[in-house]
Specification:
The chain is α+β, with helices and mostly antiparallel strands and 170 residues long. The chain is built from 5 helices and 7 strands; from the N terminus they run βααβααβββββα. The protein has helices at 9-16, 20-28, 53-67, 72-85, 153-165; strands at 7-8, 50-51, 100-104, 109-113, 118-120, 124-129, 139-140. A 5-stranded antiparallel beta sheet has the order 6-5-4-3-7. Strands 1-2 form a two-stranded antiparallel sheet. The longest helix is centred in the middle third of the chain and has 15 residues, at 53-67. It is globular, with a radius of gyration of 20 Å. The N and C termini lie far apart (45 Å).
């Protein structure tokens, strides 16, 4: 994926699998706000929200968490814990690039520090965990962009037939 300076909400939705409405709802509740917020225009519409590459990567992780079944409440708790306890943002924990790496077993989210300490971020973020081994069974959170689903030839043919069958209104 080639990085751009900013991404529209439509581009972010296509890459993450999140809906444009979901992005709008998250921005309104300040879960993750875009670099360029939507503003009312003189014509009565709104300008387009724009997201930075850092926000795109964070949204890829948040979309992965949502697909794994984590609620918005838990995601907000995760983001707040990262900010307050570890003084980092979500982007700093991606791909082992910082002092904290995020891992999950599908039910909980854990932080592994560069010193080897483990923390359960959703239950007791201040209490280090005793982990035997290297944390087998835990996976790093995904930042993979989703590919756009291609419609099969039969689905395209059905869609075309449906459009032709609809009576046109004058």
């Amino acid at each position: 994926m080639r990085l751009k300076k900013t991404y529209s909400a439509r581009e972010v939705a296509a890459l993450t699998g999140l809906s444009a409405r979901q992005l709008q709802w998250w921005a309104a509740r300040k879960l993750l706000t875009p670099t360029v917020a939507a503003k009312r225009t003189a014509a009565g519409g709104f300008t387009e929200r724009r997201y930075s590459p850092v926000e795109l990567y964070e949204l890829l992780v948040l979309a992965d968490l949502r697909r794994r079944g984590f609620s918005v409440y838990k995601i907000r708790a995760l983001l707040n814990t990262l900010k307050r306890r570890f003084h980092v943002r979500l982007y700093d924990t991606i791909r082992g690039g910082g002092d904290v790496t995020l891992l999950t077993d599908g039910r909980e989210i854990y932080a592994r520090t560069s010193k080897g300490e483990f923390f359960n971020l959703l239950r007791a973020p201040a209490q280090p965990l005793l982990v035997l081994g290297d944390g087998e069974g835990l996976k790093e959170l995904s930042t993979r962009a989703r590919r756009a689903k291609k419609r099969s030839a039969t689905k395209r043919a059905k869609a075309k037939a449906t459009q032709k069958a609809k009576p046109r209104q004058a």
